[in-house]
Please model this.
Amino acid sequence: MERTDATTQEPVYRPRNPRASPLYRCVCEHADELREAGHIHRRVEDETLDRFLDCGDLHKGFARVHCDACGHEYLRPFSCKTRCFCPSCHQKRMLIYGEWVEEEVLGPVPHRQYVFTVPKLLRGAFHQRHRLGELCRIVGRLLSEAYRAADPDGQPGFILFVQTFGDLVTFHPHIHALVTDGVFHPNGVFRVLPPIPAELLEQQLRRAVLEMLLADEAIDEDLVAKLLSWQHSGFSVDNQVRIEAGDSEGREQLARYMIRAPFSLEKTEYKAEQGVIVYRSKLHATLKRNFARLIRETHLPPWRLARRFAPGESFRSCPAPSGWRCCSSTYPTGGSTWFATTAG
Model:
């Protein structure tokens, strides 16, 4: 990271101190406990922990940066490049992704964010990863069908992101969709359309998700009948965020937000003597508090980040380990999975 010296006003490299972060101290002290307790089930989880502990350590490798003009040089330690786990490396990934998706994927047309959520009663069923994929396919199908009904000759463009964490790192599977606010015609003309009514998408989402979970034997018909009878089912769709055609920075920021890491170091406090992490965020609307105490306990399903840039392209996955749960809830922390499809 480059910072500006107060006297010279020239960029000066200030290396970060990764060992001072609460996450580093927590992993350093408890990674062996996870291994000894048998909570590391996949090789990539073990590799992620080791790579994270080596991130930014000059003893593990570095590049020598030399300026031919003035002769000054410094050592730049190698980074771990892990996804969704190392805050520093994931922040770089967010910046690169936001720039790439704006320059290479999104068109200079209006975009809208849709957020699809499922009720708490059903969230535990989505610990099975294949159901997250099915949830994403359902949302993609609903968006495509809705735009096709409005303009049969048009094709929308959208990127779908599955996130499985909430503000207080509870398990909260939901989908963010960055969608063109209209459709592309075969001749390249873009037609702006009104937003899809959230109430319509909510009803379709409820029926489609319940049918999927019933077919997968995750729920029974009695529960389906109960959820269909409720006036407020817990399914929700939000479509209030709109980005104008000329707001390239807004599209880039929204894309970065959608692949953000599950937690922030600025919100994290590690109490080593108690083996507890205190995570602070904004006031939770349901829990009525702005913090969560995370304690060491049992192994939780590891998260996975998968990407798809076009239909039929193979997945590239990079799991990260998990070993904490929110002591006030049975839901564990999660990571994020996102899929991307583009028009044409």
About this structure: Confidence is low (pLDDT under 50) at residues 1-6, 296-344. The chain has eight helices and 17 strands. Residues 38 and 270 are 23 Å apart (CA to CA). The longest helix spans residues 129-150.
